[in-house]
Design brief:
single chain, 327 residues, alpha+beta, Deoxyribonuclease I, Chain A, 2 domains, six-stranded mixed sheet, 10 helices, elongated
Length: 327
């Protein structure tokens, strides 16, 4: 090793650590493939389950870029840089909100999956008292949960309801401060109940709402999950629609992006809170993925979104304050 005499002091140049090329490629290639699969919108067995980890892969792509730089392999650096930029384009917008522009009435939505009816009814009702939602959407609602919510005082706060409870994961129900009108069922017969209702706000604005609960996209149920997402009604002129609940899908699923493409915005995404996770809750580790959503007609605006823990359920509750378009 060459020694250098600097001002009478002999110094030894420090050697820069070089990352082996194969190690750099070992980190870069999986990230690049992941980004391409996500960009292509592949929703199939295994891929559908894994693609929710895209925000974490986006973060790791920066590590892969560092390794590529350390390897001094130009090809590896180019692929890693392109991958990181693509991942940033797909993920980072969820952390930056839009300025609300709608000037119509406010609509407040609270949605919670009760995990086979086990969610703490008193905690749910306390959220209703504190957040003052106009609508409460529930999924995995069974007869026991209906009784528990009633005993906790929900009927006094939200006197109107349309319930399709069932002693399984398929039960769902809408509670409301306003009278509800049941609309024709649209959900595929091989999936969960998804109550569809209409109500009017005090200023006369009419809103249609779906209590969303799709099948989990596991194994053979991927097809039923896709059918449920495709069945959701699109936004149409003259009618304000809200889709809220457990979609069993993140913004990295092509199926959910297709729903958004039919005229909706995601409230969390629009308020810069789209990276807040909702499932699985009440575990030793924090929730890992975001599969609970409130979608609203893109003519409306999302003002505020917050996430709330509810004991004994594997989902966090999601609250969204919306501003509807003026009549």
């Amino acid at each position: 090793m060459t020694q250098v005499d600097v001002g009478g002091v002999v110094t030894t140049p420090r050697r820069r650590l070089r990352v082996p090329g194969p190690l750099a490629w070992l980190a870069v290639v999986p990230c690049a493939v992941w980004a391409l699969v996500r960009l292509a919108g592949v929703d199939g067995p295994i891929v559908t389950e894994l693609i929710t980890a895209t925000p974490y892969v986006a973060l790791f792509s920066l590590v892969a870029l560092s390794l590529a730089l350390g390897s001094r392999r130009r090809a590896a650096v180019a692929v890693a840089a392109a991958t990181s930029l693509l991942m940033a384009f797909m993920v980072l917008p969820r952390a930056f909100g839009d300025t609300p522009t709608a000037t119509g009435p406010s609509l407040r939505i609270l949605t919670v999956n009760l995990f086979f009816g086990r969610g703490d009814a008193h905690a749910v009702v306390e959220l209703v008292r504190r957040l003052r939602p106009d609508i409460l959407n529930t999924q995995e609602l069974d007869a026991r949960a209906v009784e528990a919510l009633d005993a906790a005082g929900l009927a006094r706060l939200m006197p109107y309801s349309h319930l399709e409870e069932e002693d399984s994961a398929s039960g769902s129900g809408v509670y409301s401060r306003f009278p509800l009108t049941k609309l024709p069922d649209f959900a595929p017969p091989n999936g969960h109940h998804m109550p569809y209702v209409r109500f009017s706000l005090p200023d006369g604005q009419t809103v249609e709402l779906v209590d969303v609960h799709t099948m989990a996209p596991l194994g053979r149920d991927v097809a039923a999950w896709k059918d449920a997402l495709r069945s959701l009604p699109p936004a149409v002129p003259g009618t304000v629609r809200v889709l809220a609940g457990d979609f069993n899908a993140s913004l990295d699923h092509a199926g959910l992006r297709d729903v958004l493409g039919r005229g909706y915005i995601d409230a969390a995404d629009a308020t810069g809170t789209g990276l807040r996770t909702t499932w699985p809750a009440n575990r030793r580790l924090p929730p890992l993925i975001t599969i609970d959503h409130v979608l609203v007609d893109r003519r409306a605006s999302a003002v505020d979104v917050s996430i709330h823990d509810v004991p004994y359920t594997d989902h966090r509750a999601l609250f969204a304050e919306l501003r509807l378009p003026a009549r």
